[in-house]
């Protein structure tokens, strides 16, 4: 937020109008340039006590929804208690729908308890229907503790009439903002230091119609004039806003010393100004003094910080300055942009350097900057931003640069654009094959970073391995990952670690968990040696997943705890990325039924996760939240998280051995929604007769669950036999791969299938086998989450020895214990209580909304609404809407 402007006109009449009521959602300050919109809002905000204020100044570049939401996240980050769902979504290198991002932001803001204001300054600068639609969504879903303020030269691109009709809109427009005669007098005399006659003040106010920018420019022109000249100027001063501004800028510039005039015109190309930057652009010293003088003289310079280091020109003034500069400057603007780019590059600000290089049309410099920026931006999960840069560089310049081409390929891989990445890899490989001389062009290759060029064979081999793994080509992954590892080691631990990881992914996806564990362990070790803590933590989470598949719960815990210690020792503080380690530990301790420790790690993970945007944390957080909501009985909530994960999915090399689609099917099975679960099998082409593979093992186990559920629910005899046959085939495959986690689940399902048919004796043998495998690691929730059928079987087991007997007693006692989180549902007088989502839909039905309106309000499909309606009617024992509402009120479920 810009600092206060000293000696500015007090405007109590407008400040009083800005006082909001509890129903106000949007404060819109809309007027053409130069009416003091931002100054008024900042003055009012500084008078508010106890309100948290989030400020975001916008410009044309923010029309990109991804960039808009990135800045928006930073603007609201200081709010106490805010969640971090949007931060996690933004780490995806694929484009996310703006409405999806806004829903995530609303989720994050809902956790903030204190009243707060979000200001979007200069909203007119945006030209994005997607952002307009997203803000309309925000206003629909806005938490009550929030108020949105927008300053703009025009009305926003979303409808505001409904807000106006509901009394949720407060508006100030040009007629409200223009100076009165009294304010004009105060401004000219006190702020601008002029001595004018009352009739001269009245004439200026009338001829500018209270337009503040026009009055300010008139005052600057009047300074240092003789009294006769003042009268003449006031008498002849008239015209439209734009005419007046052009005329007055010309007048003002002519009155300035040459050094100031040259400064204003030459620095008009800059969005932000500071002394050293202006010195570099002008190739002279003393700019800081000039900036301070311009501010003191009210010459349309706005400070951006309280220390008066950074400034900007008033937008309107800057526009006219640039137009004048194009016609009168001897030094073309391209040269000025080029010097600005060089200054920012030396400062270590590649984004600004790249922007000015592009403005100078110095595409070679832009390409060089992009080549040098890739490594650091990629390792900060900013490859999506980098990709937007290089796409703006002429393609012929990119193709001449093998390092840039390979980096381009990596950025495309990160965004899931596999086919486009293949083309860029071929460009890079062509230069290596021809010793730097292209057979298609007489031009020689261009290399900016010799170090990156030396590492190019490894870079390309790793990219090839990544591409092959993402496309499911396991032999290709192994081929290229081994090629990278066999190249002479040049001390690049990061590159070698990535090669080892990709080789581990290939082994993991094919079910060779022992080799996968070894390769990923090597990758983790290399990342620690490279000092790359985020990647070391990310790789550790993959290693723990492999150990979990092997049934090694305690080794997975030790792996997480070792990484936690290592990260703290290397950084000397507990870095935010360790949130993923705490979350993994929470899941493992939850499986062991150590709820106190699990909850402690979960809370610490959420505390740290709110501070960062780290993709592995979001992946684990989603999985943990699905487990928690499932345990609480909030199956609709679990589905919402999985639906969001499905929307954000893109092709990547991490083995998808527990697919989101299969997890959704498991939730549907728990809901009793076998129709959608069966549709999943058809969509995925899954059947009990499939050829088995580790990649689809989780899906086939899920299919077995569905078949058992069909027998229990619909008494389909063939279903349970299909399940038994499938489980019989899955068992030896899991045994051969030493996949103990899968093995225990398969054996449990065999027991439950026999029990469902009433053959308890046949059920006990596989259950005893499962317990024998599980006892050493202490699995608890895997059994307990199967519910009463499992408890009934455990009670019938004979205790063959003390250890097994104690384990069975431990499991049985866990059936009566609460899970990690208390249930969010209030007690209901129903045998089968309504879920949270069903209660929400019931309230909307009672409010008179139609099914389509409910779907739109809750951002769910019409079919989902109809499905919930069916469940609601069934649980209430009614068949019509009116009867459902009456029955719900009778039971005090709704008001």
Explain what you see.
With 895 residues, the chain is mostly helical. It has 48 helices and seven strands. The strands form two sheets. The chain has a five-stranded parallel sheet with strand order 2-3-4-1-5, with helices on both faces. Strands 6-7 form a two-stranded antiparallel ribbon. A hairpin with a 7-residue loop joins β6 (301-303) and β7 (311-313). α26 packs parallel to α28 (493-509) and α36 runs parallel beside α38 (697-714).
- Spans of at least 5 consecutive residues with low confidence: 820-827
Helix content: 55-70%
What fraction of the residues are assigned to beta strands by DSSP?
under 5%
What's the total count of β strands? 7
Radius of gyration: 33 Å
Query: What strand line-up does the widest sheet have?
Result: 2-3-4-1-5
Structural class estimated from helices and strands: mainly alpha
Average pLDDT:
86
Biggest β-sheet: count, sense, barrel? Answer: 5 strands, parallel
Termini Cα gap: 44 Å
Rough shape?
globular
Total of helices: 48
What characteristics describe this protein?
mainly alpha; globular; 5-stranded parallel sheet; 895 residues
Write the layout of secondary structure elements.
Blueprint: H1 12-17, E1 26-30, H2 37-45, E2 52-57, H3 65-76, H4 85-89, H5 98-110, E3 116-121, H6 129-141, E4 146-152, H7 161-165, E5 169-173, H8 174-177, H9 181-191, H10 198-208, H11 212-222, H12 227-236, H13 241-255, H14 258-266, H15 275-282, H16 287-296, E6 301-303, E7 311-313, H17 315-328, H18 333-347, H19 350-359, H20 363-378, H21 383-390, H22 395-399, H23 402-414, H24 418-433, H25 450-454, H26 456-470, H27 474-486, H28 493-509, H29 513-530, H30 533-549, H31 553-571, H32 579-591, H33 595-609, H34 615-632, H35 635-647, H36 660-671, H37 674-684, H38 697-714, H39 717-736, H40 740-756, H41 760-774, H42 781-784, H43 788-796, H44 802-814, H45 836-846, H46 851-858, H47 862-876, H48 881-890
Parallel strand pairs: 1-4, 1-5, 2-3, 3-4
Antiparallel strand pairs: 6-7
Helix pairs in contact: 3-5, 5-6, 9-10, 11-13, 13-17, 15-16, 15-18, 18-19, 19-20, 20-21, 20-23, 21-23, 23-24, 23-26, 24-26, 26-27, 26-28, 27-28, 28-29, 29-30, 30-31, 31-32, 32-33, 32-34, 34-35, 35-36, 36-37, 36-38, 37-38, 38-39, 38-40, 39-40, 40-41, 45-47, 46-47
């Amino acid at each position: 937020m810009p600092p206060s402007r000293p000696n500015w006109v007090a405007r109590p009449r407008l400040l009083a109008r800005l006082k909001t009521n509890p129903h106000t959602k949007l404060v819109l300050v809309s007027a053409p340039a130069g009416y003091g919109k931002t100054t008024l809002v900042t003055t009012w905000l500084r008078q508010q006590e106890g309100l948290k204020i989030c400020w975001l100044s916008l410009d044309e570049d923010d029309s990109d929804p991804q960039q808009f939401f990135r800045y928006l996240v930073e603007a609201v980050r200081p709010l106490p208690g805010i969640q971090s769902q949007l931060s996690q979504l933004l780490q995806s290198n694929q484009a996310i729908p703006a409405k999806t991002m806004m829903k995530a932001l609303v989720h994050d803001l809902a956790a903030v308890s204190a009243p707060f204001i979000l200001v979007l300054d200069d909203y007119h600068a945006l030209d994005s229907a997607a952002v307009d639609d997203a803000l309309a969504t925000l206003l629909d879903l806005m938490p009550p503790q929030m108020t949105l303020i927008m300053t703009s030269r025009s009305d926003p691109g979303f409808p505001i009439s409904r807000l106006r009709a509901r009394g949720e809109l407060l508006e100030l427009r040009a007629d409200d903002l223009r100076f009165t005669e009294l304010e004009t007098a105060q401004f000219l005399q006190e702020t601008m230091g002029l001595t004018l006659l009352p009739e001269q003040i009245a004439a200026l106010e009338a001829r500018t119609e209270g337009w503040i920018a026009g009055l300010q420019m008139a005052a600057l022109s009047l300074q240092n004039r003789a009294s006769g000249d003042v009268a003449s100027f006031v008498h002849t001063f008239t015209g439209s806003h734009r005419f007046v501004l052009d005329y007055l800028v010309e007048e003002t510039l002519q009155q300035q010393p040459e050094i100031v005039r040259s400064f204003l015109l030459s620095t008009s190309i800059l969005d932000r100004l500071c002394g050293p930057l202006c010195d570099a652009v002008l190739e002279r010293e003393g700019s800081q003094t000039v900036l301070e003088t311009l501010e003191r003289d009210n010459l349309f310079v706005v400070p951006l910080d309280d220390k008066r280091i950074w400034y900007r020109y008033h937008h309107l003034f800057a526009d006219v300055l640039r137009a004048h500069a194009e016609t009168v400057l001897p030094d073309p603007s391209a040269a000025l942009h080029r010097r600005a780019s060089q200054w920012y590059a030396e400062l270590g600000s590649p984004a600004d350097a790249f922007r000015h290089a592009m403005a100078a049309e110095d595409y070679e410099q832009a390409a060089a900057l992009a080549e040098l920026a890739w490594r650091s931006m990629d390792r900060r999960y900013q490859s999506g931003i980098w990709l937007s840069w290089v796409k703006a560089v002429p393609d012929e310049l990119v193709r001449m640069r093998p390092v840039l081409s390979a980096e381009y390929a990596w950025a495309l891989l990160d965004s899931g654009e596999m086919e486009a990445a293949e083309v860029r890899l071929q460009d890079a490989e062509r230069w290596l094959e021809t010793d730097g001389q292209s057979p298609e062009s007489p031009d020689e290759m261009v290399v900016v970073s010799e170090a990156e060029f030396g590492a190019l064979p490894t870079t390309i081999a790793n990219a090839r391995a990544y591409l092959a793994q993402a496309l499911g080509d396991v032999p290709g992954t192994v081929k290229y990952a081994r090629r990278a590892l066999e190249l002479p080691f040049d001390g690049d631990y990061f590159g070698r670690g990535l090669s080892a990881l990709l080789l581990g992914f290939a082994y993991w996806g094919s079910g060779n968990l022992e080799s996968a564990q070894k390769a990923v362990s090597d990758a983790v070790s290399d990342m620690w040696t490279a000092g790359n803590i985020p990647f070391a933590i990310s790789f550790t989470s993959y290693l723990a997943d492999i150990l979990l598949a092997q049934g090694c719960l305690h080794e997975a815990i030790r792996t997480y705890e070792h990484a936690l210690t290592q990260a703290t020792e290397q950084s000397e503080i507990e870095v935010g990325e360790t949130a993923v380690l705490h979350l993994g530990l929470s899941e493992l301790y939850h499986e062991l039924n150590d709820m106190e420790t699990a909850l402690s790690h979960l809370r610490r993970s959420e505390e740290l996760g709110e501070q960062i945007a780290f993709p592995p944390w979001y992946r684990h957080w989603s999985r943990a939240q699905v487990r928690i909501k499932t345990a609480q009985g909030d199956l609709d909530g679990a589905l919402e998280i999985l639906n969001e994960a499905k929307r954000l999915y893109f092709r990547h090399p991490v083995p998808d051995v527990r697919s989101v689609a299969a997890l959704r099917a498991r939730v549907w099975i728990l809901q009793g929604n076998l129709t959608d679960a069966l549709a999943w099998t058809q969509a995925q082409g899954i059947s009990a007769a499939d050829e088995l593979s580790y990649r689809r093992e989780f899906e086939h186990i899920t299919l077995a669950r569905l078949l058992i559920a069909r027998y229990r629910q619909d008494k389909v005899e063939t279903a349970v036999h299909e399940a038994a046959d499938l489980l019989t085939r899955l068992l030896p495959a899991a045994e051969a791969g030493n996949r103990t986690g899968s093995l225990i689940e398969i054996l449990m399902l065999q027991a439950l299938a026999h029990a469902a048919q009433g053959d308890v004796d046949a059920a006990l043998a596989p259950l005893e086998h499962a317990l024998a495998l599980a006892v050493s690691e202490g699995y608890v929730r895997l059994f307990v989450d199967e519910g009463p059928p499992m408890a009934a079987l455990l009670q019938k087991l004979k205790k063959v020895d003390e250890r097994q007997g104690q384990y069975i007693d431990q499991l049985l006692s866990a059936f009566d214990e609460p899970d990690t989180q208390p249930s969010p549902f209030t007690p209901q007088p129903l045998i089968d209580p309504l879920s949270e989502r069903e209660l929400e839909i019931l309230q909307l039905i009672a409010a008179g909304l139609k099914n389509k309106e409910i779907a739109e309000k809750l951002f769910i499909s019409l079919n989902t609404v109809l499905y919930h309606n069916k469940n609601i009617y069934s649980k209430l024992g009614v068949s019509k809407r009116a009867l459902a509402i009456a029955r719900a009120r009778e039971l005090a479920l709704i008001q």
